[in-house]
Write a structure and sequence with these properties.
The complex is a heterodimer of chains A (about 170) and B (about 375). Chain A is built from six helices and no strands. Chain A is mainly α and about 170 residues long. The radius of gyration of chain A is 20 Å and the shape is globular. Chain B has twelve helices and six strands. Chain B has helices at about 1-35, 55-70, 80-95, 125-135, 135-145, 150-180, 185-190, 205, 210-220, 245-270, 300-325, 330-360; strands spanning about 105-110, 110-115, 195, 200, 285, 295. The chains are: A mainly alpha (about 170), B mainly alpha (about 375).
Chain lengths: ~170, ~375
């Protein structure tokens, strides 16, 4: 990935990610997240992870965020109250953010040789990121994790149905 | 490098031109179709310098001019940015989705081999699903940003409907992908090229008739047209999520409908009716099983295939216009019942049977 393309995507990605946190209107905040997820998908695509890119858009931008917006619209949330933080909450959040920033900065400065980033040319095989390659990994090496995740999702769905039933009575 | 960029640009232009023209023509087909069904003459008032003869050309010019010159009303108290953004968000994914559908085979120009598909990607089917799943944002935003209760109702109805029918559509698509073993549209079309016993073209409709019905019905539901036009529901909620739109923005919502019709037709054509394939037409020309053959130059073969693709797409567009003007609107509970309790189980059953048969056939 050329540095030019990387920054062309990374700068708006950071801007829209900030938009998620800083936007006052819940709808604008959710939409910023949609744009950020979409840009992330483009980045995956340019890093030859085509399957992940497509799934990123289908699952996150196309399904989950639609539900978010749906809920916001149904509850008709307007402007968020300005001050909702509890005392001390900001300090704790700040400390954790700084620690996180420190480690991420350290990693970025050291540079990870395996991570394709700006200006790092890595040789990938033609099958890299393809559906076949991903599926093989998923259904052999990570089969257990895959199945456990699907069971977890099933439990969540059944739980949601049960909860919805109770309210109806 | 420069030639590659040029070729990509030309292909993209061709696809854009194809989609936009088709959308315009479909606007006219829709009027004429509705007139035909309702026993009227229809769409014969647009006259250029007193000449009303060429109905299609006149309507094609008159519609955009009328929309472009109308006042663009933005109601008071709306989120102006999102209100303007909504029609763009609605139109963009619909048009981009068209780019992965191949409109012809490889074209050889001297040394160059041009794959007649605007975006050549091995996960084309997923790309299409991704783009169609983004289409819902136009509806949601249009409904929310209008600051109007009826628009909001339309937006909520629209998003619920699109999410529900996307599931059945996805299951239909997966069954087709399993049958052909590829996520690449061009590959799927190529595999429909051979003849069963030399006579019957091995088009997808023979292998996946149920998936065809599921995809067509779910596709029509995604376009939000009758009998699935509850998000619009003009007898209850004025015109749903685009009540507060006028001028060019209304035109964009209007066009989204037609572009989506074209996509549904293109996908159905590609999956179930051989895409650009013409029965008995090989790369050298026609070869019939009863012994006749007709040699054709390469360019003619490719042009014939592109024409075949366009004709097939147009036929399915007309079918959708016919459906829109002959079916009454569903009730909302019928819509949800149909999507979740008929389409979804059928899609799942079709998928399981497809997988089992494939396992049995391929071992």
């Amino acid at each position: 990935m050329s540095p030019f393309l990387f920054f062309l995507l990374a700068v708006p990605l950071v801007v829209f990610s900030l938009g998620v946190v800083l936007a006052r209107s819940p709808v604008r905040s959710a939409l910023s997240l949609v744009v950020a997820l979409f840009l992330l998908a483009v980045m995956f695509f340019l890093l030859d992870a085509r399957m992940i890119a497509a799934l990123q858009v289908i699952v996150y931008a196309g399904a989950i965020m639609v539900l978010f917006l749906f809920v916001i619209m149904l509850l008709n949330l307007q402007q968020e109250p300005v001050e909702t933080a509890r005392p001390g909450q900001r300090t704790i959040a700040g400390v954790f953010s700084l620690v996180f920033l420190f480690f991420m900065g350290a990693i970025a400065l050291r540079g990870l040789p395996v991570m394709p980033g700006p200006g790092v040319e890595t040789a990938v095989t033609p099958s890299f990121g393809s559906v076949e390659a991903l599926a093989e990994r998923l259904f052999t090496r990570h089969a257990l994790a895959f199945e456990v995740t699907s069971v977890l999702l099933l439990v969540a769905i059944v739980g949601a149905v049960v909860l919805a039933r109770k309210i109806q009575r | 490098m420069l030639t590659l960029i040029l070729i990509s640009a030309v292909k993209a232009l061709i696809v854009v031109a194809m989609v936009l023209n088709l959308a315009g023509i479909l606007g006219w087909v829709e009027r004429k179709g509705s007139a035909l069904i309702q026993d009227r003459i229809g769409a014969n008032r647009a006259a250029i310098f007193g000449f009303a003869g060429a109905g299609l050309v006149n309507t094609l010019l008159a519609d955009p001019i009328k929309f472009l010159t109308k006042e663009d009303v933005i109601p008071r108290g709306v989120d102006r940015l999102l209100h303007t953004l909504a029609p763009c968000v609605s139109l963009f994914p619909a048009m981009v989705a068209f780019a992965v559908v191949p409109f012809g085979d490889r074209l050889h120009v001297g040394e160059l081999v041009v794959n007649l598909q605007a975006i050549e990607v091995d996960v084309g089917v997923l790309f299409l699903l991704a783009m169609t799943s983004l289409g819902v944002y136009g509806v949601v935003l249009g409904g929310w940003a209008s600051n109007n209760r009826l628009s909001l109702l339309g937006g909520i109805r629209g998003s619920a409907q699109m999410i529900s029918y996307e599931l059945a559509m996805g299951l239909g698509v997966v069954a087709v992908v399993l049958t052909y073993g590829s996520l690449d549209f061009q590959e799927i079309v190529r595999r429909q090229g051979h003849m069963i016993g030399g006579w019957i073209p091995s088009w997808g409709i023979l292998y996946q008739p149920l998936a065809f019905l599921l995809l067509l019905i779910a596709g029509i539901a995604e376009t939000k047209r009758a009998p699935f036009d509850l998000p619009e529901g003009e007898s209850e909620i004025v015109s749903g999520y685009f009540t507060e739109y006028s001028g060019i923005k209304y035109l964009m919502f209007f066009m989204t409908d037609f572009v989506e019709i074209a996509i549904v037709s293109a996908v159905v054509t590609t999956f179930f009716f051989g895409g650009w394939q013409i029965p008995f037409l090989g790369s050298q020309g026609f070869v019939f099983p009863w012994g006749w053959s007709l040699a054709l130059p390469h360019v003619v073969v490719v042009l014939l295939q592109v024409a075949a693709y366009m004709v097939k797409v147009f036929v399915f567009c007309c079918l959708q216009v016919l459906v829109r003007w002959s079916m009454p609107r569903l009730r909302y509970d019928q819509l949800m019942w149909f999507g979740w309790k008929v389409m979804l189980p059928l899609g799942l059953a079709n998928l399981v049977v497809t997988a089992l048969v494939l396992l049995w056939v391929r071992g």
